[in-house]
Amino acid sequence: MRKLTPDLLERYIDGDLKPKKARQVERLLSESPDHQEAYSELTQIGDLLRLMNEENLANVTFEGFKSQVEHQILSEDKLPPLVSRIGVWLTEFLDHRRVVWIPTVATITALTLALVLLPFFSIHTASETPNNGIQLYSSPSPLISRIDSVDFGDLTGTHYTIKDNQGGTVGVVWINESP
Amino acid sequence: MKGKIVTAVFTLVLLVGSITADANSATRCKVLSIEASNSKSGLDSKLSQYRTIFKKAPFSQYDSFVLKDSQYIELDIQAPTPFVLPDTIEGSLLLKQRKKGQFQLTLTITRKGQKPISIDGFATPGAPLFAAGLKSPNGVWIFGVTCERDNDIVKY
Question: Distance between CA atoms of B99 and B101, rounded to whole angstroms?
Fold first, then answer.
């Protein structure tokens, strides 16, 4: 190494050179007054830069840093509004739980329809309204009884249809039994 | 979530079970044994609901009606159920079907030593079937049959 470049000199000052290279730099510095002068200038500039950094660091303040950090943490802990949370939950449920909610909704709908339509097909429902001792039923069919056929066996007879005062009819079989 | 599903399924099972139970409920029938006569004792207070009917023919030939016996029998569809009537008479009731509030019945009455008398007809709650005319000690027997489902409310 015959020439000491500024880059090499800076690396020497920073301590970045290997020992062998550093010894060569020191030999060149001892042989040339110009190199010594350059070395001296660079070390002075380095000292000035270090002083400036130390002054800047001394002026740094941490006032308000703690409160800013606390404010940020608290703002992150606050929950979103209830409507928003329900919306998110509902969306995720409908998207990912179709196996559960589709059959459930279908079953509930079918049962609701069945319950709504049941009264139209039911036999009758009872009413507790007294009617001179005869029960009343909220039935679509009138209060009737009737005789379709009679086998009198050894005897004879006939059958009647009697109207009551409620507008209904009563079927009566009259058997003629000899004394 | 799993708990909610179990609750929903349990509710559905109860609902379906109650509907099924209602569909399979037994039919309860009441058999009245009334003696009609001309003893001038009038109408038994327990039979006041039939006052209008007993004033009409063929009952109008009698002036007295006394309730001698009242019994309930439980019927299953297509299962003949025997019962005992007064004066050595036996009865049997068959519920063929329930349809639109009507009970399709076969009432069989047998006097001991005689052929059965078989009556097919329909009855609705509040409108009984009557079979009358068999001789009683003081006049004639009137047998009335009225039915309702077991879970229905009946007031007499």
Answer: 6
Task: Name the closest residue on chain B to residue A137, using Cα atoms.
Answer: B125
More confident residue, A167 or A173: A173
User: Chain B residues with CB inside 8 Å of A143's CB?
Assistant: 124-127
Nearest to B29 by CA among B87, B94, B75, B88: B75
Sheet holding B89-99: strands in order across?
Answer: A146-151, B117-123, B102-111, B89-99, B81-85
Query: Which residue, among B93, B85, B97, B142, has the nearest Cα to B119 in the 3D structure?
Result: B93
* Cβ-contact B81, B74 below 8 angstroms: yes
Which amino acid type is present at position A101? W
Residues B96-150: pLDDT tens digits?
Answer: 998 877 899 999 999 988 899 999 999 888 788 999 999 999 999 999 999 886 5
Determine contact: A146 vs chain B, CB below 8 A: yes
Nearest neighbour of B129 by CB, restricted to A134, A145, A152: A145
Length, in residues, of chain B: 156
Residues β-bridged to residue B40: none
What's residue A99's pLDDT? 86
| Enclosing H/E stretch for B148 | strand B139-149
Cα–Cα distance, A169 to A172 (Å, whole number): 10
B chain contacts of residue A152, beta-carbon cutoff 8 Å: 117
What are the distances in angstroms from CA B19 to CA A106, A113, A119, B3, B102? 19, 14, 12, 25, 20
